[in-house]
């Protein structure tokens, strides 16, 4: 029998325009979790969806006693929605998963079993095969992983947002107070003991991806600038290289001038101007990127704003 001492498992699900398949998803997850014999709660975060997502959650909450939900005041993006979910989850173990069916609920009992038997802090589901994606998405992801791996030493290949964290890991995660949240990278940074289970990303059950290309690019830039200051050193290195080059080229020009054979260098001047100009602007851009991150953090705004929430009638966990 379930008692107060039975561990509580929280499932954190960020939802953006997932109305199409939400009911099916909720009942599937509930079904899988009942198999584990643990108490559980579903912590859904509606990331300001313009569609029926919130209405469906309110309706379902009448029949699912384990459903809790918060609605953000606008679309804050998946990472911040996850943040809201993690802050509100009360479980001894928290499982984070997508609400679009791409993270198979059938894996939940196995994750819980591994957590119980191995006593590790993090059980992470690793993609053996990426889901059906656009070619540009695939290339973009690969490029991003390689860059992040080289720059920050964080290996994220195959790592997904589908993972179980115990209370200790969640509390440690919540201590990271940055506004530029990158869930995957931050959990990798945390360390802790972990086991991996492979899974295949399935097709979306319905609706369509809420990520646009600019969103992905923004996440990639956040990830890189949050995990590495190497791009800043690139500016210094480029400066040094140019300095060395300028000495050589300067001496060469001087010698030619003294020998009375100065270069008729219109093309050279234009070329140098263009190269130096773009290098300067690129460097300023890199510095600006970090400046923007600092500015965002320094403002100290809340990470997200909650518009409303649903708690079950007897809300003792
Ligand atoms: N999502 C969100 N806010 C957003 C975009 C997405 O909460 O602005 C949620 C979405 O509802 C889903 C999860 O994040 O549960 C993953 O989103 P999606 O399937 O669009 O991303 P992909 O699987 O393509 O990485
Ligand atoms: Mg998806």
Task: Walk me through this protein's architecture.
The chain is of the alpha/beta class and 317 residues long. It folds into two domains: 8-227 and 301-310, Spore Coat Polysaccharide Biosynthesis Protein SpsA, Chain A, CATH 3.90.550; 230-299. The chain is 50% helix and 17% strand. The radius of gyration is 25 Å and the shape is elongated. The chain starts with 7 loop residues before the first strand and ends in a 7-residue tail after the last strand. The model has no long low-confidence stretch (mean pLDDT 85). The protein binds uridine-5'-diphosphate (UDP) and magnesium ion. Uridine-5'-diphosphate (UDP) binds at residues 14-16, 18, 47, 75, 77-78, 81, 98-100, 102, 209-211.
Give the tags.
317 residues, alpha/beta, Spore Coat Polysaccharide Biosynthesis Protein SpsA, Chain A, 2 domains, eight-stranded mixed beta sheet, 10 helices, 50% helix, elongated, binds uridine-5'-diphosphate, binds magnesium ion
Number of strands: 8
- Are any ligands bound, and if so which? uridine-5'-diphosphate, magnesium ion
The rounded distance between the terminal residues' Cα atoms is 16 Å
CATH T-level topology of the largest domain: Spore Coat Polysaccharide Biosynthesis Protein SpsA, Chain A
* Outline: elongated
> Which homologous superfamily in CATH is the superfamily of the largest domain?
Spore Coat Polysaccharide Biosynthesis Protein SpsA, Chain A
Indicate the CATH class of the largest domain.
Alpha Beta
Helix fraction bin? 40-55%
- The proportion of residues in beta strands is 15-25%
Overall pLDDT: 85
Q: How is the biggest beta sheet arranged?
A: 8 strands, mixed
What's the architecture of the largest domain, going by CATH? Answer: Alpha-Beta Complex
Number of helices: 10
Q: Are there runs of 5+ residues with pLDDT below 50, and where?
A: none
Taken together, the total number of domains comes to 2
